[in-house]
Design brief:
Largest sheet: 7 strands, mixed
Number of helices: 11
Order of helices and strands: EEEHEEEHEEEHHEHEHEHEHEHEHEHE
Strand content: 25-35%
Number of strands: 17
Oligomer: single chain
Bound molecules: zinc ion
Length: 349
């Protein structure tokens, strides 16, 4: 065991502050990574403030981790010191259930999340990426294409895979008409990926000032969702819609836009249950579903795809000392489109 610098919250009302946390010495199949950048996900804020309940304090958030390998255990074959590496939302799973066997570890009932999950190596819970280094089983360590900007790569590990996976699952390709609802941390990546897959992309946003940005990100059209005339023009025309909105909203307005056998997948989590009208689903055999991140094989596929197509997130890089300020701005959606913490700042203090 060794100690590393980190930022943690000690209660749901405390700001994040500098601390030290233990990490295990790398075991046979472990990879030790010096963390270079860590994205800020809205889940970090929800967890730090116990908004989903179940937070164990102190909590060290962060599951969009990019860094450099500093040591590996004797059994590690896929990574070596000096390599770039990444860790997303998961650090372990049972490896034996049907989901794990299909490479869909995110659906494993025994998945161990990167932070605030029981730590089977050390007492207590897992600690995330707002820290100097992390030690992770090689099965959960991803390779990072060397051509990508690392600060802008970090959020691919959650925001990226969360949007990439459902677009792939629902067969988004050239010739499909795809909607992305909400242009934020998730939505801006949804637009980039859907565009890269060759689809005709329509971005839905409530704020007209995001129109130019959505077009720049790769949207073919932008619809201001408050404008019912604009919405109605698209009735019955979409193959797939990715809904990234985490505020309460009228899902029926979007279900009505689906073509026959169209699907809407939710990746945002509104606090209230959505009211779904049966007749928004029945007449065109439509479906409404959800999706969470992606498995390790697909996360690697996404990173490789991003390397080939030079896709990264739009980020604002901040020092760790500004993390509390960043949380406040996140609540106001005042970021284009993801914060990425430069972990070199943690050495300053
Ligand atoms: Zn996340
Ligand atoms: Zn499993």
């Amino acid at each position: 065991m060794y100690n590393v610098k980190a930022y943690s919250a000690v209660s749901e009302t405390s700001p994040l502050a500098s601390t030290t946390i233990p990490r295990r010495e790398p075991k046979e199949y472990d990879v030790q990574i010096e963390i270079l950048f860590c994205g800020i996900c809205h889940s970090d804020l929800h967890s730090a403030r116990n908004e989903w309940s179940g937070t164990v304090y102190p909590i060290v958030p962060g599951h969009e981790i990019v860094g450099r390998v500093t040591a590996v255990g004797s059994g590690v074959t896929r990574h070596k010191p000096g390599d770039l590496a990444a860790v997303g939302c998961m650090v372990d799973s049972d490896g034996t259930c049907a989901h794990c066997k299909e490479g869909l570890e995110q659906y494993c009932p025994n998945v161990i999340l990167t932070y605030n999950s029981p730590d089977k190596h050390l007492d207590g819970v897992t600690y995330g990426g707002y820290s100097d280094s992390i030690v992770v089983d090689e099965r959960f360590v991803l390779r990072v294409p060397s051509t990508l900007d690392l600060a802008a790569t970090a959020p691919l590990l959650c925001a990226g895979i969360t949007t990439y996976s459902p677009l792939r699952h629902w067969g988004v390709t050239k010739g499909k008409k795809v909607g992305v609802v909400g242009i934020g941390g998730l939505g801006h990546m949804g637009v980039k990926f859907a565009h890269a897959f060759g689809a005709h992309v329509v971005a839905f946003t409530t704020s007209s000032d995001k129109k130019e940005d959505a077009l720049r990100l790769g949207a073919d059209e932008v619809v201001i969702s408050r404008n019912t005339d604009e919405m109605e023009k698209h009735t019955g025309s979409f193959d797939f819609i990715l809904d990234t909105v985490s505020a309460n909203h009228d899902i029926n307005a979007y279900l009505n836009l689906l073509n026959r056998d169209g699907n809407i997948t939710l990746v945002g989590a509104p606090p209230q249950p959505l009211a779904v009208a049966a007749f928004a689903l029945i007449p065109r055999r439509n479906s409404l579903s959800g999706s969470t991140i992606g498995g390790i094989p697909e996360t690697q596929e996404m990173l490789d795809f991003c390397g080939e197509h030079n896709i990264t997130c739009d980020v604002e890089v901040i020092p760790i000392q500004k993390v509390n300020e960043a949380y406040e701005r996140l609540l106001k959606s005042d970021v284009k489109y993801r914060f990425s913490i430069d972990m070199a700042s943690l050495k300053e203090r």
